[in-house]
């Protein structure tokens, strides 16, 4: 058994770059960086900060959400998995990069704090609820299930119908 899972909460470091891939049926991919900062006290009691930068890759529906609502400074919760890829650069050297492939994405913070909400309208008006996790990643393609599972809508209770006094079951009792 193995597990490859990453959970991050941080701030977007630059505006996302969104591309459309022609050979993949116009699949959309969004890439951006996410900064996570650890704050701690050193041996001398001084506050220190250590910031890690993560390369984030969002595909298809997650890329749609990123394109519409995520800008530099947006606070996000990202859940996904690690992927390391390699390539040869122009000089022939082998290069490596580690990325997080998004499975779930959630906007955090107040609407007023989100730079994407400035001038674009509220995300909730577009049908996307930022208070709910969004799993617009690749989903569970093996079983044909989408990654996003909206909360089921509870049907309104059926109105109570009262029977006429003649038809009440108490009238049919033999005693």
UniProtKB/TrEMBL annotation:
Function, as annotated: Plays an important role in DNA replication, recombination and repair. Binds to ssDNA and to an array of partner proteins to recruit them to their sites of action during DNA metabolism.
Transmembrane segments: none
Any GO molecular function: single-stranded DNA binding
Annotated Low complexity bias: 140-151
Motif (Important for interaction with partner proteins): 170-175
Pfam families with a match to the protein in the record: SSB (PF00436)
Domain of life from the UniProt record: Bacteria
Residue segments, region Disordered: 113-175
Cellular component aspect of the GO annotation: nucleoid
Protein name in the entry: Single-stranded DNA-binding protein
NCBIfam families associated with the record: ssb
CDD domains named in the record: SSB_OBF
GO biological process, one term: DNA replication
Lineage: Bacteria, Pseudomonadati, Bacteroidota, Bacteroidia, Bacteroidales
């Amino acid at each position: 058994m193995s597990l490859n899972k990453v959970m991050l909460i941080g701030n977007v470091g630059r505006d996302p770059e969104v591309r459309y891939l022609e050979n993949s049926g116009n699949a959309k991919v969004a890439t951006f960086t996410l900064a996570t900062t650890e704050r701690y006290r050193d041996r001398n009691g001084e506050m220190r900060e250590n910031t890690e930068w993560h390369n984030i890759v969002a595909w298809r529906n997650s890329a749609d959400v990123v394109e519409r609502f995520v800008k530099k400074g947006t606070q996000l919760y990202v859940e996904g998995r690690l992927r390391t890829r390699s390539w040869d650069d122009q000089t022939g050297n082998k290069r490596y990069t580690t990325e997080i492939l998004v499975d779930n994405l959630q906007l955090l913070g107040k609407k007023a704090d989100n730079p994407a909400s400035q001038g674009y309208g509220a995300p909730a008006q577009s049908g996307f609820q930022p208070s709910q996790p969004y799993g617009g990643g690749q989903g569970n393609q093996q079983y044909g299930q989408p990654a996003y599972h909206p909360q089921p809508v509870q049907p309104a209770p059926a109105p109570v119908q009262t029977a006429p006094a003649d038809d009440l079951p108490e009238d049919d009792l033999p005693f």
